[in-house]
Amino acid sequence: MDEIYDFVVIGAGFGGSITACRLAQGGKSVCILEQGRRWKNDEFPRTTGQFRKGLWDPKETYGFIQYRAFKRLDVIQGCGVGGGSLVYFNVHLRPPDEIFNQSSWPENISLNTMEPYYSLVKDMLDAVPLTPPKGYELPPKTEAFFDAAEGAGKETKLVDIAVYTGPDRNAPHGDRTQSACTYSGNCLIGCNVYAKNTLDLNYIPLAEENGAQIYPLHMVYKISQEPDEGYRVYARRLDEEQHGQWEEVSFVGKQVIIAAGTLGSTELLLRCRDEYNTLSNISQKLGECFSINGEMIFAGTLFEDREVEPGYGPSITSYADCSTANNKIIIEDLGFPTPLLWYLEGILPSDTRLSRLARFLKIYLLQSIGIRNRSSRFSEELDAITSGERTTRFLPYLGLGTDASDGILYLRDGSIDIRWSHRGSRLMYKELVQAMKALSKAANGKYFASPLWRWPLRKLLVAHPLGGCIMGNSSQDSVVNHNGEVWNYPGLYVADGSVIPSALSVNPSMTIGAIGERTAFWILHNREMQLDDSETPQKN
Ligand SMILES: Cc1cc2nc3c(=O)[nH]c(=O)nc-3n(C[C@H](O)[C@H](O)[C@H](O)COP(=O)(O)OP(=O)(O)OC[C@H]3O[C@@H](n4cnc5c(N)ncnc54)[C@H](O)[C@@H]3O)c2cc1C
Ligand code: SF4
Q: What value does the mean pLDDT take over residues 370-378?
């Protein structure tokens, strides 16, 4: 006889962990099915040799970084108990009010209505501007970024980051000891001192303290309706030892929260609607309004004689508002993502397109940063870059903006594919590049374009995919309603980046987390939470 949960939650990232935690605190029986595994700090890779085990490639490795290559875009995501928080750069920003005023958003959602949920996420994840740990100062790249942005006349600030900088302590929940950030710059490859306030240090253990059960290595592939019982969720329980082996299992939930991330949730629902025909009345809008959040990385400023040490300090510390009359745009100091290059090297042998990407990066690094030894291996160059004198003077940027959100997610041969073109977002990208050039000029540095974005590649690396199961006012214009319930399927919810109907122009996890908080609150109370609401969920 199946155990019947009040809620089966699919995915343990921002949307899934937060919704599951609040539902469990609200007295519901909850289980979370997560395809990846749990990670401890001493398991994160630290050398190029170890790096392969950090990749998600379930036939060979159950790593925590998933990389999916598509024709015009490559998408990088977290995978495991904690989802994107395991790899992310810890930045928490509310989008500008104007984002919610667009017609693509449901009528009853605004920055104002979202504020109580944003406050909860900020509080739980302890997202605050960087206070340097004892004995440290603000990283040089932060100072360099401030000088560049202020020189260009842009408003700039330290951004809220979920990074702990105090004395050793027990994490707010669970049994981990957190130490202060060591400025290692390794935020992408897992924090080995638990200074990153990842979801497995707060919401996830709090959910477990309230009875939630977590099933790692459970990859969901189908959902069907159960007569009188809610929904049956079908999963493959991946064998911990034997890669490529699994056992078929299923779970029954009176209600189900899908939070497998933008690509994962959309792919799952497309399969249920179009392949298995188990949820065949899902809106025809499924897969539409895909956005890459106007993202661009790898462009930056090379200083003539200023050391910025981009690999030193949390990956992102500050931002500048570079909005124009046409678009909301922000630029952040990215830190030099050395681990990303390790990662690329780790997957090169199996993917020729990525080899090309790496070649572009190599040429870019050789030409732009001035390393002359063209015959050396990529890893040798990497060592040269990281220890050489020139990259210490290179300040990379992350740019985000209001792209056109006009991509399409669809199934091709049973797997998700992306139709995306930069055409609708051309002006936004032009303005973003102009803003980056202005920062470089103001800093008396030289601007270097992203090698990926140069013609003819015109490719982007995406860490903030949004949309596909968007929320809205009716089944004609959206897939889910304002609190995430799938049109025509009562008790079936989506709560992750896929419900966001437009670019946010800021890093999205705070908004995804707030949407998770809101979905849970509406399920439990069927109304909007207010600031100082008597039903506000507790931190402990
Ligand atoms: C390198 C990097 C840096 C980033 N930095 C920032 C930042 O500083 N600030 C910010 O706001 N955002 C950042 N992001 C983006 C942020 O991580 C994502 O926007 C966020 O994690 C998305 O939340 P989500 O709940 O939609 O999905 P996720 O957090 O991706 O969680 C989805 C989970 O579902 C699981 N899953 C998928 N399919 C299935 C399935 N079929 N069965 C079971 N489980 C499944 C996945 O393994 C994953 O754990 C960054 C991303 C990357 C890659
Ligand atoms: S920079 Fe700080 S938060 Fe990031 S991985 Fe290193 S110690 Fe952890």
A: 40
The answer to whether 396 touches 149, Cβ cutoff 8 Å, is no
CB distance 491 to 256 below 8 Å? yes
| Cα distance between residue 505 and residue 327, in whole Å | 9
Mutate to test the pocket of ligand 2, among 182, 183, 309 (most ligand atoms within 8 A of CB): 182
Residue-by-residue DSSP string for 455-482: TTT--EEES--B-SS-B-SSTTT-SB-T
Does 383 have pLDDT greater than 50? no
Report the separation in Å between the CA atom of 259 and the middle of ligand 1, taken as the mean of its atom positions.
9
Q: Is residue 11 lining ligand 1, measured as CB closer than 6 Å?
A: yes
Kindly report the protein residue whose alpha carbon is nearest to atom 36 of ligand 1. Answer: 260
For residues 438 and 447, give the distance between their C-alpha atoms in angstroms, rounded to a whole number. 9
Residue 232 carries which DSSP code?
Answer: E
Residue among 17, 21, 35 whose CB has most ligand 1 atoms within 8 A, to mutate: 35
Per the structure block, which two tokens stand in for 267?
């792919």
Rg (CA), the chain: 22
Fold of 4-525: FAD/NAD(P)-binding domain (3.50.50)
Convert the pLDDT of each residue in 102-132 to its tens digit: 999 999 999 999 999 999 999 999 999 999 9
Residue ranges per domain, the chain? Answer: 4-525
**What pTM, to 2 d.p., does this model score?**
0.93
444 C-alpha to ligand 2 centroid (Å):
29
Amino acid at 302: L
